[in-house]
Amino acid sequence: MPTNRLHRSRGSAAAATILAVATAAALVGCATPPARLQTPGSEMTHGHPDGIWKAAVPPRPMHGEFEDFDPIGIEGGARIKADCSLNWTNPDDGRLYCFASGTSLEVFLEAPRRHLERALRAWRRMRRLPR
Fold this sequence. Notes:
It is built from four helices and two strands. The chain has 131 residues and is mainly alpha-helical. It is globular, with a radius of gyration of 25 Å. It starts with 9 loop residues before the first helix and ends with a helix. A hairpin with a 6-residue loop joins β1 and β2 (96-99). The chain has helices at residues 10-27, 71-75, 102-110, 112-128; strands at 86-89, 96-99.
């Protein structure tokens, strides 16, 4: 009885696909298919050099606590300027905090009170030191 080739495993089908792509690429004169580069302004960043995280810059300047420095940076002893396009308003006192990156904001939101306490202690120390 002949072997039915349609019952091959997915792994061998994937290997066959990779081999076919590599063979086709070799036939057109290159060892591997060309890679797509992500550059500022490309469609991968939606036309904005900073990607989706900086897509909505405020229409007028906003000013946050810590002289617009990122609270997570302050907590770590670094002055990282933020443009307030990523921000959080403390529901307890209405104060605005600006973040330099989406990652910083996400980390902060895991435990805002704890991060604010640490940032406030660090800020007091930093203000006593010359820049």
